[in-house]
Amino acid sequence: MDKVKIGTCWLDGCSGCHMSLLDIDEGIVAVLGKADIVFGPLVDAQEWPEGVDVALIEGAVSSQDDLKLAQTARERSKIVVALGDCAVTGNVPSMRNGIPTRKLLERVYVEGSNQGAGVPTDGVPALLKHATPLHEAIAVDVHVPGCPPKPGAILFVLGELLEGREPDLGSKLRFG
Amino acid sequence: MATRKPASDTAGRATRAPAVKEPVADAAAALPAEARRPMKKITIHHVSRIEGHARITIKLDDAGQVADTQFHVTQIRGFEKFVEGRPYYEMPSITSRICGICPVSHELASSKACDEIMAVRIPESAAKLRELLHCAQFVQSHALSFFHLSAPDLLLGMDFDPAKRNVAGLLEQNPDALRDGIALRKFGQQAIERLAKERVHPSWVVPGGVNAPLDPQARDKILAELPAAMAIVKRTLALWKKTYDGFPNEIESFSNFPTMYCGLVGPDGSLRLYDGNLRFVDPEGCLVADQVKPADYATYIGEATLADSYLKAPYFKPIGFPDGIYRVGPLARLNVADRCGTPDADAELAEYRQRLGRIVQSGFHYHYARLIEATYALERMAELLADPAILGSKIRAHAGVNNLEGTGIIEAPRGTLIHNYKVDDNGAMTWANLIVATGHNNLAIGRGVLQVARRFVDGNKIQEGALNRVSALVRAYDPCLSCSTHALGLVPLILQLRGPDGELLDEVRSE
Amino acid sequence: MTDKVKVRIDGEVIAATAGQTILEAARANGKYIPALCYMEGLSAVGACRLCMVQVSGVARLLPACTTPVQEGLAVDTMSPQLHDYRKIALELLFSERNHTCAVCVSSGHCELQALAQEHGVTYVRYPYNYPRLEVDTTHPRYVLDHNRCILCSRCVRTCAEIEGAHVWNMAGRGIHTMLVSELQRPWGEATSCTSCGKCVQACPTGAMAEKGWGAEEMTKQRTVVSRLNSMRGEGM
Predict the structure, then answer these.
(1) Closest to B325 (Cα-Cα) out of B198, B451, B446, B444
(2) What percentage of chain B exceeds 70 in pLDDT?
(3) From the list A41, A113, A116, which residue is nearest B49 (CB)?
(4) A114 lies in a domain?
(5) Do A175 and C114 touch (CB under 8 A)?
(6) What does the alpha-carbon distance between residue C133 and residue A116 come to, in Å, rounded to a whole number?
(7) How far apart are the CA of A1 and the nearest CA of chain C, in angstroms?
(8) pLDDT for B505 beyond 70
(9) Domains in chain A: how many in total?
(10) pTM of the entire structure?
């Protein structure tokens, strides 16, 4: 039987949800027995491949790059999982949303600079007006809240998906 | 108004956006004719296993050789702005979310800044508990970096089949090494969990100390697991000392240029991770600034904005930008400190210096330095766990706002981490400056990318291993958001070389 | 006079007391109806819409906390429809302001967070509002974060009815409603505030907290209000 193809990525996140996934420690070997991780910060691939079964996406959608990656992942994956509070609710990245992006960039790159003050534009993506949850950019199939979600919860979700079932999180998880 | 320098003068960094902005196009198949640039370009669209999001642009001249490179960091969160107005004592938990690999580092630096605002000297037990947590974090983070991130390059080879140059490949070729890596990281994470209740974003570290004492049983468990962890580091060091000679080209070209170095030291000049003062040394190891108090960091460290990266570039102010380039992190710390201060680590350090010289310059040796620091962190954990004060019940000082500014500096696994806060009389944040460890290395990484690209990348024939080396140079710095397991995948890496008219000249695919 | 009133709650016959609301009768008999703006010891206002129940014979749903019992009343406190409506109410609350649970002082002890978990709310289907709201740090001992306020008005009623100082009020209308102290002065300048802190204890979320606590540290004494109320021999 073909291994399930899993793709992961982080958008505007801190990688804590990926760390929580890895906190299943030796459990990762069992996961790898059933699945191939075909894209992600864990892999050197440059482009999200076609035919991904499960996409684990961490982080809010905050820049043009994030948006593009989220859309590509959605197009090329069967099931999309919003992993962690940033992807599910916006969380800490969305704390910037009450501030116009121009003011944000000026504070960091003009006021906060001793040299060469000016907002970077070369080779870096533009910021979106708001850092939003994933489902405001693409359709999401499963939401896994938590900051980060516990390793056991992530393993549960993965396990269900690998068996072809929709995970019923019920009242197992909470925000924060 | 900043002066503009041609890209080549600043060794790969633009200081300001050019007045007429050329369209920045991805070196991908669908390039419209109008957007094609006269210069050939290779893009590594996302550098894997580093701080979330970075891109490398390699520009080629007409002969197909590397003319210039750019290291673009493409993520900005805005922490320094959106915390304005929030109570200062929320900063540890908010800044924790800057990074999921080393949240503890931010919580510690933040709490130290808050301690200053409160004008408290935290209880002895609290300081020792914080340092214990910090050392545990060092162990897990350095384990991650060496084993999960870099070991596929280092133990399997830079040119190893990319499809297998990852944890799965390690499992086949060198399963003991992989198991060691998982076990070592687990030791550190479990210690963190035993102290702080959670592995990622624990809320245990607070302004004034920590919020719960250490349970004696938890202490005993950590002590019981320590020897196995130490054994892993020892045998890995033994293996690495026999192995690194196999990388002469990398040693020669991975950021192998003189820079200053910066790190925290104790009053006696020994290595400090949790508490200390700043020291800067020059490329020969002479003191440039010493015992600089955290509150005075801004006298010596300035931040430059770059046109092509969301990551600012810190530099040594007395010398100026960009000549005031300096490095932080394991390589820098071992250059800066006179000694570690624990027996095994000092023995290893003596051998390291005997082999490589008192000041080690090549960025490739970050890996060796990291293992010595892991040794030190484990020894320090043993010392702290044996100290009766570690079980003390007085673990938190309470106070209100007594200073309108506070600065907390610690050595994170990746380098010097600075949190500087200003508050009003009510305790609301008015201003925050965060200089995050990897940031100090921005100029060095940029220059290093140019050096390694020049050494390995031939524009007339791109080799996958060459581009991997460019990425590996960045990985040697272990930038902040590196991710645990290495490449596990089978996705083609496609690199294209296009001529001036867009014609495909060469393509390399990993399958 | 405490006349008994016979009502049926979820099929079970209950002997309620005249003058009780459906919510009070239910809770007195071990029947759970979720609520956020209701607090034992305070007047009820029916603001949060979580306690909506189905009264047989009445076409629309009624808030249990403000609907008095009547002889022969039959009430369903739970149904798939009610569960859905409660989820909607909770999600709308989350979407209205900026609830960043991960870094909140009340995380783990918050009534809003707990109710969301209880009802299986794993995400908010409504677009977030992202208002720009301030944190009032002017009081020496307490802090008010408007981002976390759900306008339940428990603080308003606690201060007015239990402490008698009436520092808090609601100003504005609709989406612009804001909690204000006195005539919109910073809390630290409110001269009628006695710093008793009961409003902080009554607040269901992390909007009001004692200064100095980090994330997850603020636990509240939620029974203070009802204890004080009954000690004064008021209410029931």
Answers:
(1) B444
(2) 85
(3) A41
(4) no
(5) no
(6) 33
(7) 33
(8) no
(9) 1
(10) 0.89
Type of residue at C93:
L
- Let me know how long chain A is: 176
Q: Give me C197's structure tokens.
A: 């802190």
C-alpha–C-alpha distance, residues A8 and A49, integer Å: 11
Cα separation, B13 vs B10, in Å, equals 5
- Write out the residues of chain C at the interface with chain A, using a CB-CB cutoff of 8 A: 94, 98-104, 107-108, 113-114, 116-120, 122-125, 127-128, 130-133
pLDDT, tens digit (0-9, with 9 covering 90-100), for B192-210: 999 999 999 999 999 999 9
Facing residue for C135 by CB, picked from B86, B92, B94: B86
**Domain range for residue B66?**
34-76+446-509
* pLDDT single digits (tens) B327-365: 999 999 999 999 999 999 999 999 999 999 999 999 999
The CATH number for B159's domain is 1.10.645.10
**How far, in Å, are A2, B40, B44, B367 from residue B22 at the CA level?**
46, 14, 19, 39
CA distance C178 to C160: 17
d(CA B39, CA B25): 12
pLDDT at B39: 58
Mean pLDDT across B217-226: 97
Contact between chains at B89 and C138 (C-beta distance less than 8 A): no
Query: Do C137 and C198 fall into the same domain?
Result: yes
Instruction: Judge if B138 and B224 occupy the same domain.
Output: yes
Q: Are B16 and B4 in contact (CB under 8 A)?
A: yes
DSSP code, position B413: T
Q: Which chains touch A (3 or more CB pairs under 8 A)?
A: B, C
For the cut 70, the answer to whether the pLDDT of residue B8 exceeds it is: no
pLDDT for B190: 96
pLDDT tens digits, C160-205: 999 999 999 999 999 999 999 999 999 999 999 999 999 999 999 9
Chain B residue with minimum CA distance to C209: B87
B169/B20 Cα distance (integer angstroms): 47
Please give the mean pLDDT across all residues of chain B: 85
Q: Which residue, among C204, C181, C205, has the nearest Cα to C193 in the 3D structure?
A: C181
Share in percent of chain C as helix, strand, coil (round to 5): 30, 15, 55
Helix or strand or coil: residue B442? helix
> In terms of domains, do B490 and B359 share one?
no
Check whether residue B225 and residue B306 sit in a common domain. Answer: yes
Q: How confident is the model at residue B16 (pLDDT cuts 50, 70, 90)?
A: very low
Contact B90 C137 (CB under 8 A): no
Chain B residues within 8 A of C134 when measuring between CB atoms: 85
Bridge partners (DSSP) of residue B68 are: B59
Range of A28's domain? 4-96+130-162
**Residue B509 CB partners (closer than 8 Å, separation 6+):** B492, B493, B494, B495
Complex ipTM above 0.95?
A: no
pLDDT at B49 over 70: no
Asked if C159 and C203 count as a contact pair (C-beta separation under 8 A), the reply is no
CA distance C155 to chain B (A): 21
The answer to whether the CB of B122 falls within 8 A of the CB of B397 is yes
Return d(Cα B294, Cα B260) in angstroms, integer: 19
Distance, CA of B4 to CA of B18 (rounded, Å): 8
d(CA A53, CA A159) in angstroms, rounded, equals 13
Query: Which H or E element spans position B193?
Result: helix B175-196
Compare CB distances from B45 to A46, A118, A147 and report the shortest one's residue: A46
What residue type is B430 in one-letter code? Answer: T
Which residue in C101, C116, C127 is closest to A136 by CB distance?
A: C127
